[in-house]
Amino acid sequence: MQKRDKVMDYDAVHDTQHVYRQLVDAIARPGRICSIETVCGRLSELGERNAGLAACALALLDQEVCFSVVANESSASILREFLRWETFSLSAKTSEADYVFFECGQISAVNVRELMGALKRGTLLDPQKSATAFLTVDVLAETLEKVDEAASLCMRLRGPGIDGTRHIAVIGMDSEWMFAREMVNAEYPLGIDMFLVSEAGQIIGLPRTTIVEIESVEKVV
């Protein structure tokens, strides 16, 4: 019952529907920031970094799919047990999981390509049988001017769902993640879809069809 207490205020119907709609909107309009802040607040006892991932997972996981959590063991264990308890979904190896939840700040850049390269990319007959990756970051912003701290990874996006180009700035994610994403998505329609989730409960979707160009890594004063 202790785990259930953590979601005492979570509405399994309305909150789940809200998060799911935000995820669909985010992946349909890549680079647009969507918010699940209110729902994350109801899961705050899991920790700031886990709350956003948990909210997304509760909207997607069930007995028909499996998941993997990649973080330090303490954080991963908390989220893994919570998701098994609440969704009845099974934890699996990263290479076999339908949904993979990464804690960017706890993963060395040297390990990123290996971890991303292990994800399911689907097949030519069934490209949809691929993994969806969720990455926690510190801050997400649609323009650099809205970021006022630390180092920012600035990116330009183009592709389906984007009118021309769109710019985003991210704090708390090494550029190696985007290089690894490009590698994994090199043989379209094979590849993975990705979501960035901030501590504040903001979401940006990056489907495999989105082209991401690194503009700069800047120190914002």
Strand order of the largest sheet: 1-10-9-5-4-2-3
Q: What does the largest sheet look like?
A: 7 strands, mixed
User: What is the number of E strands?
Assistant: 11
Specify the number of helices. 7
Low-confidence stretches: 1-6
**What percent of the residues sit in helical stretches (DSSP H or I)?**
25-40%
Please report the distance between the alpha carbons of the first and last residues. Answer: 46 Å
Overall average pLDDT: 91
- N-to-C SSE series? HHEHHEHEEHEEEEHEEE
The assigned structural class equals alpha/beta
- Looking at the structure, what is the overall shape? globular
Beta fraction: 25-35%
- Compute the CA-based radius of gyration: 16 Å
List keywords for this structure.
alpha/beta, 221 residues, 11 strands, four-stranded antiparallel β-sheet, globular, seven-stranded mixed β-sheet
